[in-house]
Design goal:
Blueprint lengths: L14 H15 L9 E2 L6 E5 L5 E6 L12 H14 L14 H13 L4 E5 L2 H15 L4 E5 L4 H10 L2 E5 L4 H10 L6 E6 L11 H10 L3 E5 L13 H4 L8 E5 L9 E5 L1 H10 L1 H4 L6 H16 L2 H19 L11 E5 L3 H15 L1 E2 L2 E2 L10 E5 L6 H16 L3 H14 L1
Parallel strand pairs: 3-12, 5-6, 5-7, 7-8, 8-9
Antiparallel strand pairs: 1-2, 2-3, 4-10, 9-10, 11-14, 13-14
This protein binds pyridoxal-5'-phosphate.
Length: about 425
C-alpha cells in the first residue's frame, strides 16, 4: 500500500494548533499548572532546594506536602525500603496474577484489613486507581446502579462513577437533608452506593459519617468512604470512621499509603466477598504491574510505626493549633474546621498564583495555589498543610510572611471574605 502524502490531504487537521489553543486558554484563565522541582531532603524535610528564575539554588519550606507525619523520611521506613529492595529488587516484574504477588503484598493487605477491621484488603498502584477501579467495577457488577455522590468528591471518585456506566446523583456538600431527599427519590429496587470522603482534601471539612451511615442503611444503600486524607492521622492510623467507632458500618473503605503513611500506593478494604469480586473483575487491579515489594514492606513498616506511636497524631494536632493561632494573630483569614487542612480562600486564580510566587521567591515559603478544576472557579485558595516536622520558627515565619504579602495586596482581604462562602458551604 502506498503511504499517504500528508501534503495531498485536504482540510488537514492541525493537531498542534488545537492543543496549543487549549493550553493557551488555560494560561489565560490563570488555572495553568506549573510544576516546581522540589528537591526534597530526607534529612531536612520540610526544607528543600529549588532553582529560581536565574537558575540559582534557593531554599524554601514546603507548606503543601501531604507527608503529614514525615513518614517518607522516617529512618526505619527508609531502612526497610532499601533492605527489601536489595533482597527483592526494584520492581515486582508482574501484574498481581502473573507473578506480581509476593509475601510483602500479602502481608501488607493483611495489615490493612486489620487496620480497618475488615475481612480483606486489596492494594493498588495508588488510591486514585483504587477508587476508579472499585467504583467502576461495582457499577458494572450491579446493573442499574445509582451512585449518590457528594458534590465535592475527588476526581478519582467522579471518574470511577463515570466509568461504571451507572447513574450519578449529586448531593450538596455534607448536606444530610439533601442526601435523604435524593435517596428517598431513587427506585427502592435499584442498587445504590453512597460515595463520600471523611476529610475533604482542599477545604478540610469532615463529613458527618455516623449520620450518613444511618441514612444509607435506611435506604439499603452501600457505603464507599474515601479516607485518603485521614489514614495515619486519625483513629490510631485507621481514619475518621475508626475514630468514631464506625468502621464496621462502612462497606468499603479507601485509603492511601502515600500521604499519612509516606510511601506510595492505595487500597480498599471490605468483606472478603466484595474484595474478591473487585479483584476478579477490576481492570485496574488485574491489568497493571503490582507495587514493588520494597514499597509494600516500607508501607507496612510505616503503618506499624504510626500505630505504635499515637503521640504522632497528637503532635500534628498541636502543630495545626499553633499554626492557626499564628494566622489569627497576623489577621490571616482561613477556613476553620476540625481537620489538619487549613485553606486560605483567595477566590481568584491569577491572584492566587501571584501570591504563591511572591511567597516562594521572596520569603522561601512554598504553597501550591489550588485552582480550577480542583476547586470551582471563585473558590481558588492557598491550601496549607503543617507536618510534624515543621518547627515553631517555621510556623512563625509562614504567618509573618503571609501578613507581609497580603498587606501589599489590599484586594486579598476583600476577595478572601467573598470566596469563603464558596469554601465553607
Ligand atoms: C480524596 C482523595 N482521594 C484519592 C486520592 C488519590 O490518592 P493517591 O495519591 O494515593 O493516588 C487523592 C489524592 O490527592 C485524594 O485527595
Amino acid at each position: 500500500m502506498k503511504p499517504v502524502k500528508l501534503s495531498s490531504v485536504s482540510n488537514k487537521i492541525n493537531y498542534n494548533s488545537i492543543l496549543a489553543d487549549k493550553v493557551q486558554d488555560l494560561k489565560a484563565s490563570g488555572s495553568y499548572r506549573y510544576f516546581l522541582d522540589v528537591n526534597k531532603s530526607a534529612q531536612h524535610f520540610p526544607k528543600f532546594y529549588f532553582e529560581d528564575f536565574e537558575g540559582r539554588k534557593s531554599q524554601a519550606v514546603n507548606w503543601c506536602s501531604n507527608d503529614y507525619l514525615g513518614m517518607s523520611v522516617h529512618e526505619e521506613v527508609i531502612g526497610r525500603l532499601s533492605f527489601v529492595a536489595h533482597r527483592s529488587g526494584a520492581g515486582s516484574g508482574g501484574t498481581r496474577n502473573i507473578s506480581g504477588t509476593t509475601n510483602y503484598h500479602r502481608q501488607l493487605e493483611q495489615t490493612l484489613a486489620r487496620l480497618h477491621d475488615k475481612e480483606m484488603a486489596l492494594v493498588f498502584g495508588g488510591a486514585y486507581l483504587a477508587n476508579v477501579t472499585a467504583l467502576s467495577t461495582l457499577g458494572r457488577l450491579l446493573p442499574g446502579c445509582v451512585f449518590v455522590s457528594d458534590e465535592r468528591n475527588h476526581a478519582s471518585l467522579i471518574e470511577g462513577i463515570r466509568m461504571s456506566g451507572g447513574t450519578k446523583r449529586i448531593f450538596r456538600h455534607n448536606d444530610l437533608v439533601h442526601l435523604e431527599e435524593i435517596l428517598a427519590g431513587i427506585d427502592e429496587g435499584a442498587p445504590k452506593v453512597l460515595v463520600f470522603e471523611s476529610v475533604y482534601s482542599i477545604t478540610g471539612s469532615i463529613s458527618p459519617i455516623a449520620e450518613m451511615i444511618v441514612l444509607a442503611r435506611k435506604y439499603n444503600c452501600l457505603t464507599y468512604l474515601d479516607e485518603v486524607h485521614a489514614v495515619g492521622l486519625y483513629g490510631k492510623g485507621a481514619g475518621i470512621a475508626a475514630a468514631l467507632g464506625q468502621s464496621a458500618s462502612i462497606d468499603i473503605i479507601n485509603g492511601t499509603l502515600a500521604k499519612g503513611f509516606g510511601t506510595v500506593g492505595g487500597y480498599i478494604a471490605g468483606t472478603a466477598l466484595m474484595m474478591d469480586a473487585i479483584r476478579s473483575f477490576g481492570k485496574g487491579f488485574i491489568f497493571t504491574t503490582s507495587l514493588p515489594p520494597a514499597i509494600c514492606a516500607a508501607a507496612q513498616k510505616s503503618i506499624e510505626i504510626v500505630q505504635a506511636q499515637p503521640g504522632l497524631e497528637l503532635e500534628l494536632r498541636a502543630k495545626v493549633a499553633r499554626l492557626r493561632q499564628h494566622l489569627k494573630e497576623n489577621n490571616i483569614h482561613f477556613v476553620d474546621n476540625d481537620s489538619h487542612i487549613t485553606a486560605l480562600p483567595v477566590g481568584n486564580a491569577t491572584l492566587c498564583k501571584q501570591l504563591a510566587d511572591t511567597l516562594l521567591h521572596e520569603h522561601g515559603i512554598y504553597i501550591q495555589p489550588v485552582n480550577e478544576p480542583t476547586v470551582q472557579r471563585g473558590a481558588e485558595c492557598l491550601r496549607i498543610t503543617v507536618t510534624v516536622r515543621h518547627q515553631e520558627a517555621d510556623i512563625l515565619l509562614l504567618a509573618e510572611s503571609l501578613r507581609k504579602v497580603f498587606a501589599n495586596r489590599p484586594d486579598v482581604h476583600t476577595l478572601q471574605r467573598e470566596s469563603t462562602h464558596a469554601q465553607t458551604r
